[in-house]
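Hey, quick one: can you model this chain's 3D structure?
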Amino acid sequence: MKTKVYISRSWFCIAGFLAFFLIITAQSAISAVRPDAIPEEPLKGRELFLSKGCVKCHAVRGEGGRIGPDLGKGFFARSLTQMAALMWNHAPVMRVKTRELKLSWPNFKEKEMGELVAYLYYLNYFDEPGNPEEGRRLVREKECLTCHTIGGRGGKIGPNLDKMKVYASPIFMAQAMWNHGPLMVKKMAELGISPPSFQGHEMVDLLAYIRAASETRVKEQIYMAPGNPRRGEELFRAKGCVTCHGVAGKGGIGPALGARRLRGTVSQIAAVMWQHGPGMWKKMQEMKVLYPRLEGSEMADLIAYLYFVGFFDEPGDAGRGKALFVSKNCVQCHSIQGQGGKVGPDLGQSKAFGSSIDALQALWNHVPMMEEATRKEKIAWPQLQGQEMADLIEHIRQAQKKKPGVPKQ
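Sure thing. Here's the predicted structure for all 409 residues.
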């Protein structure tokens, strides 16, 4: 069933190659310590993007308003607190524009903010459409036709890739490639062919050519919905991926991968991970680790999870946050445990900082009041970088754990 969403279908292009990344990243320890959770349905936030009126000012890949930037073109290719800082920094301008357009300031309840930012983050997962002509060049350069048939031409060693045209999503092909990956590399070695390397958007272009050149007639394409990151996280453990690698130094016996290594679109991440495939499979053989096969929608779920590894930040630095609370003039309006300004609430008593998403929700909902107060008090709106937002949140969290000091007599 086709469902229109504010994303390009081409995000599917070569997403399957990311499967080769399956064995070298993990996050088992993070879920136990972070207050935020991996989202279950990242595209659910699209409904809020429409109903809250975001689409009136912002487009996603060309669909929507033109007042603000197009959010589908890398605008939110950032972690959660970096996204929060960006939204905070632009809040005064957005507030002015909503007044000019006589629009209500959108407020978010309970889990709504989490759903919205997960959706905005997910947009950068999708690739732009590939270039079939570039793909034609790559097929020749990478020697794909030595083993595979495309458009009636090529070898018979591997499967005919024309059959892939029926699938709207290459996740189906990706799952097959993952399951047969070691055998593919072994066969290439026998033929004296080096495993192909990919850069940038080359994988997207390659699949665009395969679809364009295929001689297979398709009456109805087979679709696969984007995966469930929450199920992908569970599969990541169940398939034993954490045996080898962790994230940010947590879990695994191999080198840990931080969020930086997971930046970029699906194809960009996949291109880097493909280069590591042969080495990973060899190491698994040495360790006598059972090769994990994927069935049904498991590939889609795992790919969705892997992308969200980069969504959450490491905790900020409370010491830096304390200094920022003063230097950014937060202290002029807010107090912590009774120390500071009285214009706004005592943040030491606030329940809004249990997680970064909770903090973002509270800040966003109070923008109209804060914008009015800063104008009245003639305080410049503080600009924050991603790390600074994380540091401020951590300072407030740590301060809330401490009991107010007893004044000396």
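One thing worth noting: The chain is about 45% helix and 5% strand.
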